[in-house]
Amino acid sequence: xxxxxxEMNLKDATSLILRCxxxxxxIAVIFGTKIKDFSSFVGEEKIFTGIVTVxxxxxKIFGDEYLYFRLDDLKFKVSYRSFFQIHTxxxxxxxxxxxxxxxxxxxxxxxxxCGVGSIGQFLAGSKxxxxxxxxxxxxxxxxxxxxxxxxxxxxxIVGKTEDRLxxxxxxxx
Length: 173
Hints:
The protein is α/β, with parallel strands linked by helices. The protein is built from five helices and nine strands; from the N terminus they run αββββββαβαβαβα. The chain has helices at 2-7, 88-102, 118-123, 137-149, 161-172, and strands at residues 15-20, 26-31, 50-55, 58-63, 66-71, 74-79, 108-112, 129-134, 154-158. The strands form three sheets. Strands 1-2-3-4 form a four-stranded mixed beta sheet, with no helix packed on it. A three-stranded parallel beta sheet has the order 7-8-9, with helices on both faces. The protein has a two-stranded antiparallel ribbon with strand order 5-6. A hairpin with a 5-residue loop joins strand 1 and strand 2 (26-31).
């Protein structure tokens, strides 16, 4: 990836983020560059599955802007704009441990600051009412998509947890 980045001639970029998943995707998010076309760096055998540029003119996407993570039997689609625990082995160990502590079905799970829904969905059982709150709308959209993909019913709310939690609790208690 570093060789390809050097080929891109990013002297005007203000920052660069590389994000990878545990299924073989690598995305470069480049801020501030004036370069208009990165399509020649994306695709099969070109290292990057997606490149996102962010500058004064807006955001442009070349290839796939998403990462795809697997946690046991669950699949999660993640945007470059949303949070996901990048150390998936450690996250998986933590989630398995929490799952053992919970031991079975629970009536309600509140996934606060839920991101794309990975923690709540991992801990939810078939009889669980799963609720998530997240301020990033793109992450909430992905949480809903991920829940559907993973065969779970969940309700996700866009907003600050501090502002939305009290109302959510009134409606489920």
